[in-house]
Specification:
Residues 969-982 have a biased composition (Basic and acidic residues). It is a multi-pass membrane protein. Residues 1-36, 96-123, 168-183, 651-663, 706-709, 754-766, 818-1219 are cytoplasmic. There is one protein chain. The protein has 49 helices and four strands. The strands form two sheets. A two-stranded antiparallel ribbon has the order 1-2. The chain has a two-stranded antiparallel ribbon with strand order 3-4. By secondary structure, it is mainly alpha-helical. 43% of the residues are buried. The protein is 65% helix and 1% strand.
């Protein structure tokens, strides 16, 4: 191996473990230069004389307010730091003033040692006042850090000023203290801003344009790839219109998380721009509507990708050669409803609609490309960043160079908008005309139609969102052209966005991201880029958030209180002295006057009691909401007072000062976290940082040979600061890196500046500070109100389950049969959007907690296996929330025909399905939070959803009986077992779940059913049904994973402990003669060892969509052992039981000429078994309401091969026992 190849290998290995891009390298360079210059200023005596009594604060503040971020982030950090300095300095001077008053008039004449000897009591009282002020400051510091991590940039400088000022001698004046803790701080902040603007400036507005273009590139690519994947079923077809083959499913699924992070980063950078002065033609706020549209576009693209995933399952592409990333990405449960749909029908429809979809896709892709070009020109982004689409064979996309200043003049935006509108209308018309050519069987509600509707609705909404983007781009282009006509000098303006409206001011004051940690605040960048490193701390979700978002009882109670408070007693008689206006006062509320003394006193007492009770309720609510703030406030106060109590005791104060007690408190405050983290791991990292920094400072000082060579000393410190800034800016270990960098300069300056300590003593005292201060912080955080990551993980997963239940209830409208004007109001959608955002943040926290749990000590065995289960749980919850977002936005945009027109008929079925889902999710929520097993019985949402689909299909047949019968004559004859067999009502009507339809007025309905089912609202319901099937399937999988984590309650004894009828059915088949004569011996059934062994026993042959006996298992959520039948058939007394062929029953083989088992016996045997996943295709087909005999290949209806698979399994078990 040559030297060059070895170096290349070493370089790749280095970049793998320590990734670094160009932006990070520039930021490290800026920060290192800034801190080095600050250290050089401390070495110059003339500059040090102007810095006051604490010149070592200059390098420290240069690290805290570092320039290694964008301009907006630096200004943001500077504003927060200055705010903390001002209030901290004022608070410290006030506390010292009161302490000096206790010393009397001699406070400025005597030293602290003399005060200790001459005025001990006064000196002790003054230190007691300082201690009280210190405790109040520490509690406020912890409270503010717990309220919002944004405020860490304010309260940390406040702590530094107050803590260090209280350590200074009490005989120093207020002017000396103000100079010591203002000049170096303000100089360090000014230097950071200077180097941020001079050396590699990063303007947020320019970065905003680049980020928006990058996000639109990914969105554009995802749209093209997903549409190509869906309609290009046969990539080898010569009539294929695309020049590229479809990408793999794995790559398509990975794009969802990528586009989500890109769009979120756009919003973050937009909020960061409010701190900047921008000199440009167009204000950055012009991108706000585009970014909002991109967020909605992300939801529709996720819907497109999900439909591609369903199509992949339906077309059974697993029979073909799969790419490795396809196999890795397709981690789906086996019992997918879509796998039982008819692929031929879907392919037939796609083949018809292929040209229509392609035409709109091509126009939409071209408009997206033009929009990116215009935005790149408007915000001075290099045109080379814009990616064009080259997957169209007849595509003619223009390309431009970077110096194309006349770019907008070559593009007619309005013409492109008109083309897109026309293409959208043509797509709707052609789609309607093409679909009208099919028979009603294809148009009826089915899994194929659900899949197609989901794709078409998301596709159209994507085109509508592109149209909205084009309108916004047109306004930006017009604004840019107007400003350009004024010339370069007058055209550009200075934009400052912080005080433009209340929203930007609120963001500036409080921030807009609840998931920001203190590390992100110190780092100054909120894009979550940690270069592959895991977070060491996570922000904890406020306890009151769950009550605000998920507690329906609280909101209802508020309404009750409000209503009760507004009730007034009616007047029964007219008060004295008010003889006039009788008609007015007779109907008015009771008015109490001064003459009614008794009533006034009674009312005043009631009002007093009500006010007192209201005050108690408010206090109780405040304490409940502020519980985590109290907890961390007490933690900070206890830890810091344990670490620094000697500074407030007269006898130990001087000793504590000599041992650098301020360092102990400084290390202790940085080791305390209001977040959940690996406490021992974080303490270890920060201890290593302090020791390494102090050792590097010692090395630098020794290399300078006792300050004889300060140049070499400075150069060596640079090599120690570079890795520190790398860990500060490029990894989540921010506070460990801060302590390491500060320790380098603090240890050196303690020996360089006039003091009694040499360099070795300073190194030892710094190590003592991390051992004592960090140890105290560790003890307090472990034993005083500890937070455990594994408990927080369960809480977050439980919270997400509650969010899903609440979103499902908000998504459902009209569950009581009432008439609703809109199926999704704006208010409900805003609530769903808010809950969805909180749930996604909770999932991000759960992912971090999952990694942190490995660092915690555990006594219950290894955590590795449980971590894999939690990984799957988080993934499934994310998929559920993603699909609820999609269907909610689709319903808001298009409505729902079933809710708005059929709700009076189908609402009991909708209510049962929604209630089942909500019940399941609430049961999971309580199981996770309480760590209790699941109950024995849980409702089946899958069956409820199938019944809803069947009822909608039946309602359509009742609404249009004549048209459907005419269309059905051309089609095949329905199967005998089909649900849609012409009956007006099914068996569930006898249970009172469905209301009879009023036949009056329906006979006059002559509308074409094709016209109805092609309405946008009905397509929206079809699309939501496809997503609802997926949601139910994921919920069942989540239920199974929950059983692994918390277990499930099972009946150990009694009738429900095992399926007794299974033994009866087995004996009826194997020993019919003995069974008839009453000589049967009950067999001992074997119970499953684990509730998840279903996949091991269902292994009789390969899976096939055309097979009559499907072997895929469907695990019902009702119990861990038994499986609920999908289609139980009641026993009919009119059937003739004499048609049994005992020979065939005993042989288990289908005869050629003999009659088989009667249909009633087979159905009855199926209904009494406890396995639903092992059904014949006839039963599955009957449930779905499809009646295609060619598709099912059910040639012999009475064949013995149609016996339930569960019955065959029992027979196989019996043979094994005999063997």
């Amino acid at each position: 191996m040559s030297l060059k190849s070895k170096l290349t290998k070493i370089q790749k290995l280095w970049l793998y473990y320590f990734p670094c891009d160009r932006i990070l390298a520039k930021r490290i360079c800026k920060s290192t230069v800034n801190t080095t210059v600050a250290f050089i200023f401390c070495l110059i005596p003339k500059i040090t004389a102007h810095l006051g009594a604490a010149p070592a604060m200059l390098p420290m503040i240069s690290v805290i307010v570092h320039p290694g971020r964008r301009v907006g982030g630096t200004i943001h950090g500077a504003i927060y730091c200055i705010t903390g300095l001002i209030f901290g300095l004022a608070y410290a001077i006030f506390g010292r003033f009161l302490a000096q008053r206790c010393l009397g008039s001699s406070w400025h004449e005597l030293t602290e040692a003399q005060q200790h000897v001459l005025h001990y009591k006064r000196y002790e009282a003054g230190l007691a006042i300082l201690a009280v002020f210190e405790v109040i400051m520490l509690f406020f510091h912890g409270w503010m850090r717990s309220v919002s991590h944004y405020y860490f940039g304010i309260v940390f400088p406040l702590f530094v000023v107050v803590h260090f000022a209280f350590m200074d001698p009490l005989n120093e004046t207020a002017g000396t203290i103000a100079k010591a803790y203002s000049t170096p701080f303000y100089l360090g902040i000014a230097m950071s801003i200077f180097w941020n603007l001079v050396l590699f400036p990063e303007w947020g507005t320019t970065y905003l344009g680049n980020t928006t273009i990058d996000a639109m590139n990914e969105l554009h690519k995802s749209i093209d790839y997903s549409i190509n994947f869906f309609i290009a079923v046969d990539p080898h077809n010569s009539s294929q219109l695309y020049s590229r083959d479809p990408v793999s499913l794995g790559k398509l699924l990975k794009m969802k998380s990528l586009i989500s992070s890109k769009v979120n980063n756009c919003r973050v950078v937009l909020h960061e721009c409010i701190y900047e002065f921008t000199y440009a033609y167009v204000s950055p706020t012009k991108l706000k509507p585009i970014i909002s549209t991109l967020e909605n576009l992300t939801v529709f693209i996720n819907g497109l990708v999900n439909t591609c995933q369903l199509e992949f399952i339906l077309l059974a592409r697993h029979d073909n050669k799969l790419r490795p990333d396809d196999v890795a990405a397709l981690t789906l449960p086996k019992n997918k409803e879509i796998s039982f749909a008819n692929a031929e029908k879907l392919l037939k429809v796609i083949d018809k609609l292929h040209p229509v979809i392609y035409s709109l896709h091509r126009t939409m892709s071209e408009c997206m490309y033009i929009a990116k070009l215009v935005l790149a020109h408007a915000f001075d982004v290099k045109v080379s960043r814009v990616h064009s689409c080259s997957m169209f064979k007849d595509g003619n996309f223009p390309t431009f160079s970077n110096n194309a200043n006349n770019l907008p003049n070559d593009v007619d935006i309005q013409n492109k908008i008109n083309d897109l509108k026309q293409a959208l209308e043509e797509c709707k018309a052609k789609f309607k005309s093409e679909m009208l050519s099919f028979d009603i069987d294809i148009m009826s509600p089915s899994d194929e139609m659900f899949l197609l509707s989901s794709f078409l609705l998301n596709f159209r909404q994507t085109a509508d969102s592109t149209l909205v983007i084009m309108e916004s781009v047109k306004d930006i282009l017009v604004k840019r052209q107007i400003q350009e006509k004024k010339g370069w000098l007058r055209g550009k303006r200075l934009w400052f966005l912080v005080l433009t409206n209340y929203e930007t001011f609120s963001i500036w004051l409080k921030g807009d991201r609840n998931s920001v940690t203190e590390n992100d605040t110190l780092k100054g960048t909120f894009n979550g880029n940690t270069n592959g490193f895991a977070h060491d701390t996570v922000i904890r979700r406020p306890d009151y958030e769950e009550n605000e978002l998920l507690s329906q009882k609280v909101s209802s109670n508020k309404n009750i209180v409000k209503d009760d408070a507004s009730l007034d007693l009616p007047m029964t008689s007219e008060p004295k002295g008010n003889s006039s206006s009788t008609s007015d006062t007779s109907s008015s509320p009771l008015t109490l006057t001064k003459t009614t003394t008794f009533g006034t006193n009674r009312t005043s007492r009631r009002q007093g009691r009500f006010s007192f009770m209201s005050m108690l309720i408010s206090i109780d609510k405040f304490c409940e909401v502020s519980h985590p703030h109290f907890r961390f406030g007490f933690q900070v106060a206890i830890a810091l007072m344990l670490a620094s109590f000697p500074m407030f005791i007269p006898k130990t104060r001087q000793w504590y000062i000599d041992y650098r007690g301020t360092w102990i408190g400084f290390v202790c405050i940085l080791c305390l976290e209001p977040s959940v983290g690996g406490t021992f791991w974080v303490f270890f990292l920060r201890a290593v940082g302090v020791i390494f920094g102090a050792a590097w400072g010692y090395l630098s000082y020794v290399a300078a040979v006792n300050q004889t060579n300060p140049y070499l000393e400075t150069v060596i410190t640079v090599f120690g600061a570079i890795p520190g800034f790398y860990y500060l800016l490029g990894t989540p270990y921010v506070k460990a890196a801060i302590i390491e960098i500060i320790s380098i300069y603090i240890v050196m300056l303690a020996a360089i500046l006039p003091s009694q300590d040499d360099i070795l003593t300073s190194f030892a005292k710094r190590c003592l500070a991390v051992g004592y201060g960090g140890g105290v912080a560790l003890i307090v955080q472990v034993f005083f109100f500890p937070l455990k990551a594994r408990e927080q993980l369960n809480e977050e997963i439980s919270f997400v389950c509650g969010c899903i239940s609440e979103m499902e209830l908000l998504y459902a409208t009209g569950l009581e049969g009432e008439q609703v004007a809109s199926s999704m109001s704006e208010e409900k959608y805003k609530k769903i959007e808010k809950i969805s955002k909180s749930a996604k943040e909770a999932l991000a926290r759960a992912t971090a907690y999952k990694g942190l749990t490995r660092q915690e000590p555990r006594l219950k065995g290894e955590y590795t296996e449980l971590e894999n289960v939690f990984t799957q749980v988080i993934f499934i919850q994310k998929q559920i929330i993603e699909r609820i977002d999609t269907i909610s936005l689709l319903r808001k945009q298009n409505g729902s025909a079933v809710i708005e027109e059929f709700n009076s008929v189908v609402y009991p079925y909708r209510r049962q399905m929604v209630g089942s889902i909500s019940c399941l999710m609430r049961a999971l929520q309580e199981a996770f939070i309480n760590k209790t097993p699941l109950p024995q019985f849980l409702p089946s949402a899958r069956i409820a959803h199938r019944r809803l689909i069947n009822k909608v299909r039946q309602t359509l047949r009742i609404r249009y009986p004549g048209q459907i019968s005419n269309l059905s004559d051309k089609a095949r004859k329905p199967n005998e077992g089909d649900y849609a067999d012409g009956k007006d009502e099914d068996d569930d009507d006898n249970e009172g779940l469905v209301m009879k339809m009023n036949r009056r007025g329906q006979a006059n309905t002559t509308a074409n059913p094709h016209e109805y089912v092609l309405k946008e609202k009905f397509l929206s319901w079809n699309a939501s049904s496809a997503a609802s099937e997926e949601i139910i399937e994921y919920i069942e999988e989540l239920l199974n994973l929950t059983k692994i984590l918390v277990g499930v309650n099972e009946f150990k004894y009694g009738f429900l402990s095992r399926p007794l009828y299974e033994d009866w059915a087995a004996e009826a088949v194997t020993g019919f003669d003995n069974f008839i004569n009453g000589k049967s011996n009950p067999m001992n059934t074997r119970r499953n060892r684990t509730p998840f062994d279903g996949t091991s026993i269902i292994s009789e042959g390969n899976e096939s969509l055309q097979s009559t006996n499907s072997n895929e298992s469907q695990i019902s959520p009702d119990s861990t052992r038994s499986y609920e039948p999908e289609c139980p058939v009641a026993y009919e007394k009119n059937d003739n039981p004499a048609a049994l062929n005992l020979l065939r029953i005993a042989s288990h083989k289908a005869g050629q000429n003999a009659d088989g088992l009667p249909k009633t016996f087979r159905n009855r045997a199926f209904s009494i078994t406890s396995t639903s996943g092992q059904l014949s295709s006839l039963s599955r087909h009957s449930t779905l309401g499809n009646a295609d005999p060619n598709y099912l290949n059910d040639d012999d209806e009475s064949s013995d091969d149609d016996l339930p698979l569960a019955l065959k399994m029992v027979l196989s078990h019996m043979k094994e026992k005999k063997d």
